[in-house]
Amino acid sequence: MQKKMRGIFTNTLRARFPAQQSTMPLRHGHHLFLGIKTNTLRSLLLQSAPISSLKVAWRKDQRLDGAIERDKRWRMCFRVVRELLNEPGQRMPLRYLEKRRERLKLPIKVKTFISRYPSLFDLYPDLLKPKSQPVPFLRPSPRLLDFISHQSRIQAQHEPLIISKLCKLLMMSKDRVISADKLSHVKRDFGFPDDFLCNLVPKYPQYLRLVGSPGEGQSFLELVSWNEEFARSVIERKAEEESKLTGIRMRPNFSVKLPPGYYLRKEMREWVRDWLELPYISPYSDASPLSQASPEMEKRTVGLMHELLSLSVFRRIQVPIIGKFCEEFRLSNAFGNMFTRHSGIFYVSLKGGVKTAMLREAYDELGELVDRDPLSEIKERFVEMLDEGHRDYLEKIRMKREAMKRDLELLAKRNSEQPMQEEYEEEDDDDDDDEEEEEEKEKF
């Protein structure tokens, strides 16, 4: 073991102090090893160890899991809405939607879903075929159509933001080009319109160019010109803002904040401390000279992930979706371990049976977003529409229950009055008999 440790330190010292090694035989390297401070040796050992061997245990964060759990309802509703809007004429038979219930991951029956969220769809009878019997059809409700118009207005208002996001994604990529199909997979994560490739990209030929035909698997979005204003990351912008406020030049770096009760092993804390001291590497810089296993490449990759999550609408993206861009962003196959390795910067949620990478600094102690993306207004308006419809649904249930209660009370009252009426009728019969007896006596 001692020979192995001595070999590690000797090779490390050769790389760090070539001049000293040239005047000292290899077999005497341990004398130099004994003359260096313990902290320096520990730092050299940590930096010489492969990054992939640095393990950090995953720990659940309920507040961040809660942020995903709270969005579960509106995401489910949006999936169903998207299914209808993608149909020709934006209408479909009810039974078609019932057949797709499993694929849409609906936990309740379709009819129950429609009644629970009445603001989404209108039910009406229509013919599947000529001379056939009418069947229930679905179409967007007036409230949903109003939301769609509102969504289009928000996206049009923030077109420059959407274009900057597209340019930034291309500028961080290896060849400044990304498959159009891959970008379509992340359009909801970044707030891109459904038709951004056909209608939005052609409006900005000075920045973007679409090569090939969308939908054929051979189309690509290409960066036309480099914009230095776009090439500044969120980390760099924050450092510039702090420098202006304090008058002191701030060095760009990551904000590391572990959740309460979360502790790293001593060796890992020291590795993170030394790693943070490395110069910040912009995700927009050329990463080709960097070795994939170097701490510098780790710094650049963390910066790239930080920028990706900062560009997303909700500051989180599912890890499998990020994995689709391994080639474009020069990510290793084990890039997912990086999120756990840097638990003070990221969090990986397992909610919904899928890994979701989240940016810690973007959420407060209650799991609410601190810095809201302007495009998040679309989600807020959609949730507001759902709440309005759900309140109507609850009001109908309340009125129905009150009507049933009134009917039961009226029925109980009638049942209680019936025996009294029978008793009165019996008393009247007795009185009539007495009168008849008196009359007979008088006649007699």
UniProtKB/TrEMBL annotation:
Acidic residues compositional bias, start-end: 420-444
GO molecular function terms listed in the Swiss-Prot or TrEMBL record: RNA binding
Name of the coding gene: LOC120253721
Disordered, as annotated region: 410-444
Pfam families, alphabetized: PORR (PF11955)
UniProt cross-references to PANTHER family, sorted A to Z: PROTEIN WHAT'S THIS FACTOR 1 HOMOLOG, CHLOROPLASTIC, UBIQUITIN CARBOXYL-TERMINAL HYDROLASE FAMILY PROTEIN
Name recorded for this polypeptide: Protein WHAT'S THIS FACTOR 1 homolog, chloroplastic
Domain PORR: 60-390
